[in-house]
Amino acid sequence: MRAAVFEAPGSIVVVDRPDPVLVDPGDAVVRVTATCVCGSDLWYYRGQSPRAHGQTIGHELVGVVEEVGADVRTLRPGTTVVAPFRWNDGDCPHCRWGAPVACLRGGIWGQPGADGAQGEAVRVPFADATLVAVPDGAATPALVPSLLALSDVMGTGHHAAVAAGVRPGSTVVVVGDGAVGLCAVLAAHRLGAERVVACSRRPDRQALARRFGASDVVAGRGDDAVAEVLDLTGGVGADHVLECVGTAESMRTALAAVRPYGGVGYVGLPHGVELPVGTLFGRGLTVGGGIAPARRYLPELLADVLAGTIEPGLVFDHRVGLEQIADGYRAMDGRQAVKSLCLLG
Fold this sequence. Notes:
- Helix 12 links the parallel strand 17 (318-320) and strand 18.
- The chain is globular.
- It folds into 2 domains: 2-152 and 293-343, Quinone Oxidoreductase, Chain A, domain 1 (Alpha-Beta Complex); 157-289, NAD(P)-binding Rossmann-like Domain (Rossmann fold), CATH 3.40.50.720.
- By secondary structure, it is α/β, with parallel strands linked by helices.
- It has helices spanning 41-45, 93-97, 127-130, 144-149, 153-164, 179-190, 203-211, 222-232, 248-257, 277-283, 294-307, 325-333; strands at 2-8, 11-16, 28-36, 55-56, 61-68, 80-83, 86-87, 107-108, 121-124, 132-133, 171-175, 195-199, 216-218, 238-243, 258-266, 286-289, 318-320, 340-343.
- It starts with a strand and ends with a strand.
- Helices cover 30% and strands 25% of the residues.
């Protein structure tokens, strides 16, 4: 099969790799029909996170089951599925606690020894627990982008809102206008926030944020963004701030923009971020988040996608084929695209 691999910073290549096969009786082999480039992929693409030469890449996928192991009970060949960005066994103490992302036997697509989602097929361990089936006939071409968004970015944006404590009638600020930040706007609106403030400088992303439910847009950064938020809220600050970038500046902005005893939900992959515990204590702030338990959220978000009440697939504004997936990386790296969609056959 063909699959993308990391060659070096700034270099993604598509190579021939062995076709995946069943190894354990709980496995499934899934033919990938849609995958994409994630903002977190850009960290190693830019050389800011380690990655081995030749390592498979990609962790978001929608596909069709081609083969199942003897112990698989809930899936059959021909079923369209969404795969969360990590697999899980569904039975370890962390899975039973509601944190499948921390599964003791789990893993992520593209880790050493595993298939990457940016390829023609993957072997899925613990298929029954990991994969979420889409009803027959529901995965229309128009719906596939939104189904794919559920594998990571929509669940991650939702996690930021849940971790921050967003509730009906609240005021929310979203720091970051990438795919996760835009999905966080959608998530906050979905959870009933009365006012959602999106931080963005780009007109196209501002427009999508408003389509997703943003009532206000702040174009400043850092101290300027905080000043604009305080002005919008009469000097109070936001009830909840969703940090969707992962830099020290974005976290400082989030902590300064939230009101005393408010909540911050952080889901940006952290690089150089340190939490000032004294500030958190003195202002009574609640900070939560981390890696999103996407598998836990998938069923409820899938129901809304199928009902047409949310359309997170609108974050995909650039399309490539698998052989051209390096172009998708370049477009996102240069901020010419919010998120690159890759459709396969």
